[in-house]
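Can you give me the bound-state structure? Components:
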Amino acid sequence: MSREDPIIALDAMGGDNAPAEIVHGAVLAARDLGVRVALVGRPEPIIAEMAKHLPAGRQAAAKPANLSIVPASEVIEMDEHPASAARHKKDSSIVIGLKLVKQGQADAFVSAGNTGAVMAAAIMYLNRIRGIERPSLVALMPLGGKLTVLLDVGANADAKPQYLLQWGQMAAAYMERVWKVARPRVALLNIGEEETKGNQLSQEAYKLFESSGLHFIGNLEGKDVPRAAADVIVTDGFTGNVVIKTMEGMAEFIMGELREVMTSRFYYKLAAATLIPAFNKLRQKMDYREYGAGPLLGVDGLVFIGHGRSDAQAIKSSLRVAREAAQSGMLDALREMAPARVRAG
Amino acid sequence: MSREDPIIALDAMGGDNAPAEIVHGAVLAARDLGVRVALVGRPEPIIAEMAKHLPAGRQAAAKPANLSIVPASEVIEMDEHPASAARHKKDSSIVIGLKLVKQGQADAFVSAGNTGAVMAAAIMYLNRIRGIERPSLVALMPLGGKLTVLLDVGANADAKPQYLLQWGQMAAAYMERVWKVARPRVALLNIGEEETKGNQLSQEAYKLFESSGLHFIGNLEGKDVPRAAADVIVTDGFTGNVVIKTMEGMAEFIMGELREVMTSRFYYKLAAATLIPAFNKLRQKMDYREYGAGPLLGVDGLVFIGHGRSDAQAIKSSLRVAREAAQSGMLDALREMAPARVRAG
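Here's the bound-state model for the whole set.
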């Protein structure tokens, strides 16, 4: 399945800034990085947005040859009911994009749209990899220039120890293949370091991880999450989702308060102006946009789900990472892992 | 049980900065606020620390009359196994302090010591309030000058819907009595706003809260936690513990990175120096020390557990809040709530 020059299907209609930022990101990836992109969605707005980024006067001719459009008449909105939208909107950009992957016309699908709908549609149309019990959504946490991935962040609110093990195994393969991390350090999220800590799920998962052959470094606590103390942190989808949203909320709170106190006096404002490059550097250090979308691991195809707020830069990175994943043979690696796990279990 | 001028038993030996900061905090509360404090622990170090804060030359005479010492020969260390330490160290400051409460010689107990040991000992020596299934530890989150409480933060890694309801009811009573919040807004922590979101626990708890008579405002997500979107946020002890530690880790990460970028160039340092008061103001806005220790709700006595890093200011606040709780009749209110719940359940 993995080809030298993969085609990435991109949901042109998904995300808070769709289609403008999505199409812009596709143009950047196609032009600057040479990624082959199939933009899926309503042709008219896609063409209109594309025109903004191509040399005036000769737009049709100047369209990069590696950028194509696959029509899809429907749009799944950000607040639509995921499963029902995935089932009924068969001509949506999400469903059409996933079908391109299913049929081998694309090698990966990237969307910044309705997360629940992409997950539901991916499971519905691509199915799970044989032997994988539950697909899992990965969040990328780029903090201080290091990448840690956290999963599950919402695909499975209730989990079993065996799911957690499979997620750890898949995420380790992803870190090795896509981010070239040798022997990724895998940890469980818990409320204490000792193996007897935590809820029943964590305690049972600990035993499975210990004898898994993974580079398992034990339990990490919430305070370790922003510290890149592991390459892969595994938890259930309820806790994981609450954690990434708490981190987001906390960053927003602190940056907002910082802005407020620094503009509260005239001479603060002057000093703060000098520091703008420093603040920008800090912001960059927490910037997910360089790393792109997180994978939905365990479905039988490469699917990447980005933040709803993704801008052109984030989309460009996502397309780069999706190509990297397709070239790396990650999916084949996951497929080969699965039966071994079933036998072992 | 509630008296006009309550006595607060204070664990002089518990916490990263014990006994120095603890004793200092007791002196401040006794002298500045007139709180009656019984310092529990090894008399020699307590007296030595006390001497540092009393006028030189006439220390014995100058000791505030409302400050007493109750000897306890043992110390439970911060990293000791909680249940075993609580059971075996019968002459520890924690066990002696709780027994003072049990016997009515003190009206509340405050400790910044080994959280697990205080919880275990409190349940062991004070028992649960009749009808309360599981005591719960409350974290105080003072963000932006508003107080939100989150529970459970570690007493119960696994929870049932009925526990969550009782915790919400107790925390609402605590906010009303101690912090004078009329009709506290109570929310469940979840991964989406709709009642059908989340794990099985949250979905079942939602139904109980809806028909509870509480001022239930529904589900909140992780990003809402730092926003004071509710007065009381309820979740299981696993998620709650991970959340407060993630918030702490995130604040440390951002403040650390901020320090780093701002000292990376000479002219940044100059500008940053001007901003020091602004940064201090920001730090104050996230400062738990003004609010003191969080209550362990559901044990049959008033118990407050502070951050291990508590300094004199935090201890002073904790003693003030513990006195407020004792005077408010909160414990009687919790005792009266309990049987009603049992009948209703």
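A couple of observations. Residues 82 and 117 of chain A are 4 Å apart (CA to CA). The domain at 134-289 of chain A is CATH 3.40.718.10 (Isopropylmalate Dehydrogenase).
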